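Two proteins were folded this term; both appear here.
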Amino acid sequence: MAAAAGVMAAALREWAAVAERQEAARREALASWEPLLVSLSGLAEQLRAARRLSWGSSPLGAFGELRERLWRKQRGAAEALLEQLGQRREELRALRDAVGTGAASVLRVYEEKAAELGLEETLRRGARRPSLADVLEGLQDVERYYRHLYLESKLLLLSISCDSPEDMEALPQAWKRILERYEEDTVQDVLLKVSLYLDNQ
């Protein structure tokens, strides 16, 4: 059993080291969304203002192509911002995939060593020691956390349309609501759980 426990501990140490780097990358990726969404919101406000303007009865009416040129310029700027947001979304997708692969790798090690470890050892808890079952459940919580965050960011981007400036204006608020749902320190809690398990074997 000691050999199996050692293999399991090594797999968890490797997972924790990678998870800490991924968590830092996640925070950096999320921080990069807000300025882009604020810029899109500002563009949406300009689009709405241009729509409300009575072009025909204003001095600008003498410039027949101006309205179309302005719309194309604003739309081009919006599409450039959307492309940058798409790149940020891909960063979250890559993190989701890496987290999923890492959790699957640890679970695969457990499946290989489960018989040797035994159910009693898997479920054994101490005063400061979570059980291995608790730790493995935590890894799956982290994987689910990243998967849901990516999905919500993807759905937010799919909802954006230059033909709906009202919705675009509300993007910073929509993003803030998403972040509020992911404020809990799921990853840090699980990293602590892994650390306690390893330190109190």
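Next, the second protein.
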Amino acid sequence: MSSLGPPEGKQEKVDIYRDTWVRFLGYANEVGEAFRALVPRGLVWASYGISTAYVTADAVDKGKKAAAAHGDNPGKTMKVGVAVVDTFIWQALASVAIPGFTINRLCAASLFLLGKTTRWPLPMRKWTTTAIGLSAIPVIITPIDRSVDFLLNSTLRKLYGAEEKHKP
């Protein structure tokens, strides 16, 4: 019988930023963008604040883990710096910038097209746009994550030789 968990006797450490509900904080700005047509602009910006705090906390966490893993070994500062920068850039692109832009444009286009192609009242068009934006979030996550992996593996990670080591 196969087990979905780690082999017996081997306990994998849970990464609070990637393996728990905390991960969903990184998607706060996508939710904010989906609701942009319905809520004050300040709430949308607050959702970006939540996502940015998540990205920063994950980067700091990865830096602390890299520091602990390298003890007092030579090159520790560089390894910690790479861990922080790599995590921050990956998360900023994959969790905030690209999905936020994607949902923003999808919702803007949806609202525009619904205005041109239907006679629905504005509140119905706005709620429909929000539903479209929310339903797109789970669809866009994996393609964006893989694209950011490819982008960083093809560019930045080549500078510090970590194409395979750093896969957030």
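Residues 1-6 have pLDDT under 50 and may be disordered. Helices lie at 16-19, 28-34, 41-70, 76-117, 122-154, 156-159. These notes refer to the second protein only.
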